[in-house]
Design goal:
single chain; 413 residues; 5-stranded mixed β-sheet; globular
């Protein structure tokens, strides 16, 4: 995995400070970022990298040492004079956690302040475990288990970010609607989770977190304007414009599951119901189309029972399509055609440089290949197509990134 800065966005988003205390904090942030990028290095290196004076660097490093974020390593190699003292970012000063709440599974991740993954966990959600209260309890149990298994002090976990599969008000931490989770309407998840976990929490739409993850250390690293499209149980998009996540005025930017599908009459959009595109090519929609195609293509199945074939999930259906199965190929044609049209419409509005396809179904190589071929028909509004490099972990990496930024702002405020 490429070496990345733990706090990728906060150092470039601050206004120019006007007071000495603000100047010191800004210098400290900049020095910490440089130290992470060139870890380990000396004060002389930091003077050279930052353009700041030696006394300013010494003062900033002293401040970071007081906070526990920087530690001395001893002397480095001498180039003829006195050996330089080396410094390093103390990544074990604290830890951050991530939770990805899906329609059928919850995944978690624990990382240090350098963004290095310590451990992960995953649990299937039974029907009774999908309530907000159950989910919060499972998140806390998972956090405690990860800490116990890795010998990480629970008190050193400084922040938790959770991704929810629905429209989420990030400011209030309320999940407005998550159609794939029964009863998840106007859920004050941040309050519930914060009370249960006892640490600061942030709640974000899961697809937005996946986009953050791909931008931080995935297929969209270094790309300013891109769209991340998740295709799995549901369908959604995370939108980056000029290097920033775009959530919309009412938090619903990227809810592409409500886009209309060619040939179908536009129906009223209802926040507590699945949208037309999601009904068509979400996981259940793909599997429904597969069963329709099986009824038309039952010849030559040999000893494989139709009932077993009907139980295949979307990814398995796409695997068959890649192997030349006729019914699977028809499902692939159906899905790729609808999604390619949606990408074309999105590209006309936002003109992204890149579209990243992800999710448990969306990152399938055969689907990406088919959509790329369809997009080549257009003369413009034709973004570069990439498959997610983080896969189903994109949301978790995005959540870790968000928590790291939150911790940095808290410590260096």
């Amino acid at each position: 995995m490429p070496k990345t800065s733990s706090f990728p966005s906060s150092f470039t988003s601050k206004t120019i400070p006007s007071r000495p205390s603000q100047l010191r904090q800004t210098n400290a942030r900049g020095l910490l970022q440089l130290l992470q990028e060139h870890n380990p290095c000396s004060k002389a290196d930091l003077v050279r990298y930052s353009g700041l004076s030696a006394p300013t660097v010494s003062s900033g490093i002293a401040h970071l040492e007081e906070l526990g974020l920087v530690e001395q390593m001893g002397d480095g190699e001498s180039s003829g004079g006195r050996p330089p003292g080396l410094l390093r970012f103390n990544v074990r000063h604290g830890y951050v956690a991530a939770a990805d709440i899906g329609g059928t599974r919850m995944r978690m991740m624990l990382a240090d302040l350098g963004g290095n993954v310590i451990t992960q966990s995953s649990v299937l959600l039974s029907a009774k475990q999908k309530s907000p209260e159950w989910v919060c309890s499972l998140v806390v149990d998972g956090l405690r288990t990860m800490c116990r298994q890795t010998g990480t002090p629970l008190r050193k976990v400084l922040h938790l970010t959770a991704g929810a599969p629905g429209i989420t008000n990030v400011e209030t931490g309320v999940v407005l609607s998550a159609p794939n989770l029964d009863g998840w309407n106007d859920v004050p998840l941040r309050s519930l989770l914060g009370r249960e976990a006892g640490i600061p929490c942030l709640i974000e739409n899961d697809t937005n977190l996946a986009a953050v993850g791909e931008h931080w250390r995935g297929a969209a690293r270094g790309v300013g304007s891109f769209i991340f499209i998740a295709l799995g149980t549901g369908v959604g998009a995370g939108i980056f414009i000029n290097g920033r996540l775009h959530r919309g005025a009412q938090w619903s930017a990227g809810e592409i599951g409500y886009l209309s599908v060619t040939g179908k009459k536009r129906t009223p959009m209802k926040v507590r119901e699945l949208g037309q595109l999601e009904q068509a090519i979400g996981g259940s929609g793909i599997e429904e189309e597969w069963r329709r195609q099986l009824q038309r293509n039952t010849v030559g199945r040999g000893s494989v029972s139709v009932e077993k074939l009907k139980a295949l999930n979307a990814s398995q259906i796409f695997d068959l399509a890649a192997e030349g199965d006729r019914a699977g190929g028809e499902v692939m044609r159906y899905t790729s055609g609808i999604l390619a049209d949606a990408i074309a419409d999105i590209s006309l509005l936002l003109n992204p440089e890149v579209v990243v396809l992800g999710g448990g179904v969306g990152s399938h190589p055969e689907l990406c290949r088919r959509i790329e071929k369809l997009m080549q028909r257009h003369e413009f509004a034709r973004p570069m197509l990439r498959s997610s490099s983080l896969g189903t972990q994109a949301q978790l990496h995005g959540a870790i990134s968000v928590s790291l930024t939150a911790v940095e702002e808290e410590i260096l405020e």
